[in-house]
Hints:
By secondary structure, the protein is an alpha+beta fold. It has 3 domains: 70-195 and 255-335, Aspartate Aminotransferase, domain 2, CATH 3.40.640; 198-253; 344-395, no CATH class. The protein has 18 helices and 15 strands. The protein is globular, with a radius of gyration of 20 Å.
Amino acid sequence: MSAEKIDPKYIQSYCSGCGLCHTMFGCELKEDKKGFPTVVNGNPAELKHICPVFYYEGAAKHDVWGRVKKALIGYSSDADVRFKAASGGALTELCVYLLESRKVTGILHTTYDPADQTKTIACVSNTADEVRSRCGSRYSISVPLYDLQELMRDGETYAFVGKPCDVMALRRGIEVDPSLGERIPYLLSFFCAGEPSVNAQNDLLAAIGTNREKFDEITYRGNGWPGYTTVTEKDGNVLKMEYKNAWGKHLGRDIRNLCRFCLDGTGDAADIVCADFWYLGADGTPDFSEHEGRNIIIARTERGVEMLDGAVDSQSLTIEDDFTPKVDTELKLYQPAQYKRKGTMGSMIRAMRLCRRKPPKYGKEYLKKYGSHLDGKVKRKFFLGTVKRVLKGKI
């Protein structure tokens, strides 16, 4: 597909809402009916060079888990950070290490919108205390790259922490404008399963027993692992729901269109990506009951290895195991959803075409390579599930 023939509606349909196109090209974003900021203008020939969905058009550059230079199992050595963070606190400690070793002057990331905690705002943390106070997952819409230049100060360098699609866009943007890479030399991410809509937030609040008029604060995860989704109402009343229900029955049911067809839930473009390293139950599947948090920390680049080694040497991270030689064969046990999503993408694409819907134009080599890891039964299940969602009007 040449740049000249790209349908603007295709870009809108599979927009990640990162906002980098506004920073680089002045594009406008407008909220769609589900509250997702989506690009409404712009030159497709320019957008193709930064939009995450276009990265996977060509020949496969790596297998399911991406480039893996080093993979360690560990967690924050600070018990308070480990408890408060969404999982083991490794991302928080990596950011603190970068600040305290003066490799960067600030961390570009997101935090709660003080006016509505089901939303986020982009921010810069310049101290370890700021990073620690803002740790935790945001299961809500974020547009972290929209006003990137306004967040940064001249002469200062930054690390960026964002969703895999945000990091992919920024990495591709750096290829277009290398000066961005000079100002933001470190890119960090986490495994992601999708960005919930405003409707999903409302559904969650209703299911937990409150609404937008009553609620004051929300914590999606953390204060344990995985932690409870906790809502504090304005009168001080506290409501809780198990994480697996909050995500599985509410937030994860209504996500951005690109998220349903994402080939990069694993932060392929990051220097370092962190994820939950769940304990396994007796049946060999992830156990979501409460434990002390721990991460798998994957360094994908030499810069990532240097960063990870530095954080370990500083003793801010406690390491349980070197998982590097086991990634290809065993990580699927601890992150089965990510494994299945990539492996069934070809089946989902075929289902979309059968239903005369426009799927992402991913390269055949990627789909074939990823799909070779799963048997036909699993792929048929995802094929039929996609057809059913189309027929029900959910896609």
